[in-house]
Design brief:
The structure is a homodimer of 758-residue chains.
Chain A: H1 16-20, E1 36-42, E2 48-54, H2 56-60, E3 64-68, E4 94-95, E5 101-107, H3 110-119, E6 121-126, H4 133-136, E7 152-160, H5 163-169, E8 172-179, E9 192-198, E10 201-205, H6 211-223, E11 230-233, H7 248-260, E12 264-267, H8 270-276, E13 283-291, E14 297-309, H9 315-324, E15 334-343, H10 357-375, H11 379-386, H12 405-416, H13 418-423, E16 428-437, E17 450-456, E18 462-466, H14 475-487, E19 494-496, H15 515-542, E20 549-552, E21 555-558, E22 561-567, H16 568-578, E23 584-590, E24 611-622, E25 629-639, H17 646-665, E26 671-672, E27 675-676, E28 694-700, H18 722-734, H19 745-752
Parallel strand pairs in A: 1-12, 10-11, 14-15, 18-19, 25-28
Antiparallel strand pairs in A: 1-5, 2-4, 2-6, 3-5, 7-15, 8-13, 9-10, 9-12, 13-14, 16-24, 17-18, 17-23, 20-21, 21-22, 24-25, 26-27
Helix pairs in contact in A: 9-10, 10-18, 14-15, 15-16, 17-18
Pfam family, one (chains A, B): Ald_Xan_dh_C
Protein name (chains A, B): Aldehyde oxidase/xanthine dehydrogenase a/b hammerhead domain-containing protein
Organism (chains A, B): candidate division MSBL1 archaeon SCGC-AAA259M10
């Protein structure tokens, strides 16, 4: 790779100044003329039959424009995964979780809307409920969907090799049960949206991660509309972390806009966001691992009981990921997985940075430490002996391009002074690994590509138009760097349009850590195409063969005679006039050679073009009087292919680690009597800067053959191993093996006192 | 040409239903949150020095957000033609016409804004003024721009051949003076706009004919801004007729939005629109024509005194057109023109259907009738003997592709029963011809092309994206027909996006009758490009060579085996997935081989790719007691290349004829004591349906080599000869030669009584 002007350089966010100045426009900054406020009446019960709804008093309230219930909806299922038809826009007959959407109101202001909610008279007949996924499988458990006969929303099995035989042949086998919690994504901006319906066309402003796939296609189905009549506009997004995918509020808002003819805006309170915002799936995992004296992992067996919540958003796929993802980093031959996504009377479970992979890593990486101790081998060495290498194909068919996993372990160990610290009895050190995809074809088998346009205006400004969503993670900065590098112009001459599905290409969106690799490839190709068109024009202006031209620093010039040059702006203008006023538009299409399983999960398949790896080491001190864990230091070594913007990669790592520490040590939505007892930031406590250890990010580069300039994902893998690293460090510090998240002081103290957890 | 599905078919407007239902969104239908209302303080004097402006009382009024005067503007000239630096956004030092913009206010509502205007205290020192262009040339005329030393805004001369010699050699010579009036374009929707300024970016919603050229480029210069920071959005337009080009209200609105940070909307009252809305240039024309006994026109000499109004919008070019356009239809060798665009203390003069050509046709076509009588030849025959034919190049260099002029005259004469009616003494018949361009490179020499994109969505909808403006004339219907024809899909599967300069290609806009030919060629090419891409995909699906595929009625099929077919929608969807979510986007660029004069108007040049012709015959009866002219019947034969939508062509002809009749018989802005006395629809009377004769439209087709499917312009040529045809008919009925427009009953009665006009 040659010298770069932009790629591999630390660059602050291109929209950072607008955000710092308060000029960036989020949904809450947009108000339309005659806009109404929408509010949702939510179920107070975890499970109840709706006997009657009387909306008449609410409808009569002055300032109320519309009240809707199930009967006012198109009565179509939402079903974002195309799997279970268990989700209507508003509850039909039954409510299945506290927070379930029963009715909605559009009124002239928030106060009136809230007053109207109080006037809606819903007669409920409460039903027995179940919160815990394992209990939901019991014979006499209350059924969420009576017709189904059980509470299993989805089942997923894997059988590879012969685990029974492999366990028998193993020198050591450990089987343990782990439980993960239900943390909330906690974006600064809660779910919100605005809808307008004019001339049979719905315009929806929403901070979506997937404006085209999620909103346009899923919502069109649910609203029984031609997708061509739905326009989704994504302004700035105040954080998403997986939460901001398909969501009933946006459908309800659309129906209110359609019903009133006025624009309607809705915004979750923090309570609503926690109570009904698709948090992480909690899993109970029975994991069994067999290992040889030489450190080779012989067999892995797991049973996963995962909470689907009260309806199906993405929990089945999250559970399935827990059943197979770890094999992408460790060489395994014998694997058995039994997975259940189980209906419970809790908030529907959705995507959260790390998907289902990270829950399983808590189990697997904890057991690997336990086995390392049993065979008397350095846990880092046990990992090294099992890690895949670049170019290998995994048990399930994943084709690893770059995969410098061992180098990550080595660098983390070196940076941590691993061996020295392991000797130190006052502190604990724990290592855990994580792996992630860069995109995942499973969710839209038709393709997993990306398209971008780079439009060069007559003033030499390059605009990137893409359907992929910057959700606050810095995507547009990286895209701008890619385009600026390709075009040979300064970063400030590039901007990226907000996603607008009426303008942008269809984009699958920002999830499965796909946006940098997929969209980046498309942007790179589009910029190269635009440059090629511009060089044709420059060739005429300078009277130099195109092959002898270079573009750098906003000039196009003769390679051997740089004085023979023309500004990029001038070439842009002339190019436009030469094509009858048409801007130069470069197109870039990228479609990876990925595949989806045919005939179930037994076959080999490769859902992602590239795979990222990280090795984490937590250094902790445990207060034996309070049970409090102080994370003294945290080392995270990640192989990201090529770091397009190292500052941004480090930002992702730091954010992911801190978010992981929150889950590891303090965050969990809690239910009592079927109801959430901590739906606010007083009771649901997040880590702050004060709680953050020094995080040492180590970037390992090995250019991936599939990535733009060799880059692959970082967004999720940086969270994946955090709780396991902390659990292993706590064990190293105290000899206490924590198997339930979050690892709160209370739980640690109980364990330190030799008591079992409640 | 083969069989067409859409081309050449009568098709109602694609947006007709939305308009009929009131669902089409015009500026007046758009309201933004916290929007302010802007109002302009206009000069009550035709000419005055501004001694002082005190805005303090207005600024203190509750609800007033901003008051601006010249000192709050960027102090740059507007200068849309790039010719005279005589136009600031708000008046500096002097006002030069009643209605001149002195100050502006943004307030919470219209009432407050109007109240604030009253509180602005302007101290004027009134100055002598001049309304009439010839008087403005007199030695002691008041000067509008003292520095200039005279009132000549622009002078234009042509000398070709030897007119003196040619007049001497002519059998008959007539020299006459003609005066045309100042009609107002009278669109249903007055000038209005809305502006918003956010994050250093100006968004302007305006019903502009030329969003890119006029608004983006001219306004950027006047506002001292990077054009890339201006976004212009054109919603539906309620008529334009040449009026809706660059206009100070939009600049003032932009400054108010920039000054307040709030969206600002402004709307002219009808009074403001008439008083300060750039109506048609009135001309005094001294025309002299020499003819031979055989009907050959030997020489044409003209002096044109044209009112520029108080500042330069487009009047100089309008005047110049009067000096040369007629030669595009008649073979001439000896021509002398002296033209003056003269500052007067009247409203600035702008474009109006027919530009400056139509004024001259009133003079020329009247004199040709007078000369026909002198040489005793049928006036239709005199025209026939001088008309150009297809493929000829004119005196000034215009290259005529199709030009079936004689066929138009023949068909009009036949339809009118010309000879029989000429014998009928109770009625009068008059013939006049007109010619027009299809685009005009003079106004943007860099290019005169057009670009369109045709984007095919996964649901098979084709969207046309262009910078050319549908201003109510039906452009988008014709574009949709072109795209539907090329793609082989039904018309309802095509839509056209409203012009948005952030999205659309740079478009020169709708003026000089250019939009059908220029934009139509671009749309045709773009659709062909999109189809080509789709056929590649269909070829794979059907396993048929691309060459053997046909696209018709929404299906793509094997030519020899139509059962082997695939729906257009399916091909569209598969094409999108094949390119990573990228829609199929066809690009079409059209740039005609036109030219601009180098070294002044003496050289030959060809500013338009095609020229349209029309022959009109008016049949009138004149009430000798009242002077009233009753137009009994009107025949208009036009050669339009190919009528893409005959119903729409007829609509243009009918509209043009009726608008021409208004100018011919009743419409004129009138001044008394330097002030307009009829700035409203009570006193400025327009023809209505009741005034409309039966208009017989005859479409003559001769496919033009430059036009899309052979089409060329109709929008302006259909108005060009109307007043001359009526004047000739009045003469035929009464023996009275009317030489002043409008030919009101009062004037005719005076002439009938043998009196001279005042």
């Amino acid at each position: 790779m040659g010298d770069f002007s932009e790629i591999g350089k630390d660059r602050p966010r291109v929209n950072g100044e607008a955000k710092a100045r308060g000029e960036a426009t989020f949904i809450s900054d947009i108000s339309l003329h005659n806009m109404l406020t929408g509010k949702i009446l939510r179920s107070p019960h975890p499970h109840a039959r709706i006997v009657n709804i009387d909306t008449s008093a609410a409808e009569e309230l002055n300032g109320v424009e519309k009240v809707i219930t199930y009967k006012d909806t198109p009565k179509k299922h939402v079903d974002p995964m195309g799997l279970n038809q268990d989700w209507f826009i508003l509850a039909k007959d039954k409510v299945r979780f506290q927070g379930d959407e029963v009715a909605a109101v559009a009124a002239v202001d928030e106060e009136t809307a809230e007053e109207a909610l109080k006037l809606i008279d819903v007669e409920y007949e409460t039903l027995p409920y179940v919160i815990d996924p394992e209990k939901a499988l019991e014979e006499d458990a209350p059924l969420l969907y009576e017709d189904k006969g059980d509470n299993i929303a989805f089942e997923y099995n894997i059988d590879k090799g012969d685990v029974e035989k492999a366990f028998k042949e193993s020198d050591e086998v450990i089987s343990e049960r782990f439980k993960t919690g239900s943390p909330y994504q906690a974006p600064l901006e809660t779910f919100n949206c605005m809808a307008k319906y004019e001339r049979n066309k719905l315009t929806l402003w929403a901070p979506l991660q997937d404006p085209s796939k999620g909103a346009k296609l899923t919502y069109a189905r649910a609203l029984d509309m031609d997708p061509g009549k739905i326009r989704v506009k994504k302004p700035f997004v105040g954080g998403a972390f997986g939460a901001k995918l398909e969501y009933p509020q946006q459908l309800i808002c659309s129906l209110l806009a359609m019903g009133t003819g006025s624009p309607v805006k809705m915004e979750n309170t923090r309570e609503e966001d926690i109570m009904a915002g698709n948090p992480r799936t909690n899993m109970t995992i029975d994991a069994k691992v067999g290992i040889n004296e030489d450190g080779k992992i012989n067999a892995l067996q797991r049973e996963v009981y995962s909470s689907n919540g009260a309806r199906t958003v993405y929990a089945p796929a999250i559970m399935a990921t827990a059943c197979y993802r770890a094999e992408t980093m460790y060489r395994l031959e014998n694997v058995k997985s039994r997975g259940y996504s189980i209906y419970t009377n809790t908030v529907p479970r959705g995507c959260f940075r790390g998907f289902g992979n990270t829950q399983m890593l808590f189990a697997l990486e904890s057991i690997l430490d336990m086995l390392s101790e049993k065979i008397g081998m350095d846990p880092a060495e046990v990992r090294r002996r099992n890690l895949h290498e670049s170019g290998e194909t995994t048990l399930h068919g994943r084709k690893l391009g770059s995969f410098a996993a061992k180098e990550c372990v080595d660098k983390a160990v070196e940076e941590a002074n691993w061996e020295e610290k392991r000797e130190n009895k006052k502190i604990g050190v724990g290592l855990a690994n994580g792996v992630h995809v860069s995109g995942n074809r499973n969710f839209f088998p038709a393709f997993d590509g990306s398209t971008a346009y780079v439009r060069v205006s007559e003033n030499g400004m390059a605009r990137i138009i893409t359907g992929e969503a910057d959700i606050g993670q810095g995507l547009n900065t990286v895209y701008a760097q890619i385009a600026a590098e390709e075009l040979g112009i300064p970063l400030k001459k590039v901007d990226t349009a907000h996603v607008d599905t009426d303008i942008a290409p269809y984009g699958l969106g920002t999830w499965a850590s796909r946006a940098t690799l997929h969209g980046g490839n498309a942007v790179k190709k589009a910029a190269a195409d635009a440059k090629d068109q511009l060089l044709d024009v420059a060739s005429e202006i300078l009277d130099v063969d195109k092959e002898n031209l270079k573009a750098e620093d906003g000039e196009i010039f003769e390679s051997d005679n740089p004085d023979n040059s023309v500004p990029f702006e001038e070439v842009s203008e002339q190019a436009m006039f030469k094509q009858g006023g048409g801007y130069v538009i470069g197109e870039g299409h990228y479609t990876p050679d990925t595949s989806v399983p045919e005939g179930g999960g037994e076959k080999k398949w490769n859902p992602s073009p590239a795979y990222s790896f990280g090795a984490h080491i937590a250094v902790v001190e445990v207060d034996e009087d309070t049970g409090e864990v102080d994370v003294l230091e945290y080392i995270a070594a990640h192989e990201v292919g090529k770091a397009l913007n190292p500052m941004s990669v480090e930002g992702q790592i730091e954010g992911g680690v801190l978010q992981g520490l929150g889950w590891a040590l303090m965050e969990d939505i809690k239910w009592e009597d079927g109801k959430i007892v901590n739906p606010n930031f007083s009771d649901y406590v997040l880590p702050t800067a004060v709680d953050s250890p020094e995080i040492k990010s180590i970037i390992v580069e090995e250019e991936d053959p599939e990535g733009p300039f060799g880059a692959k994902s970082i967004g999720e893998v940086c969270l994946d191993p955090v709780h396991a690293a902390v659990a292993n460090a706590i064990y190293d510090a105290t000899g206490i093996r924590m198997k339930t998240l979050p690892m709160t002081p209370e739980k640690i103290l109980l364990k330190l006192k030799g008591k079992s957890l409640p």
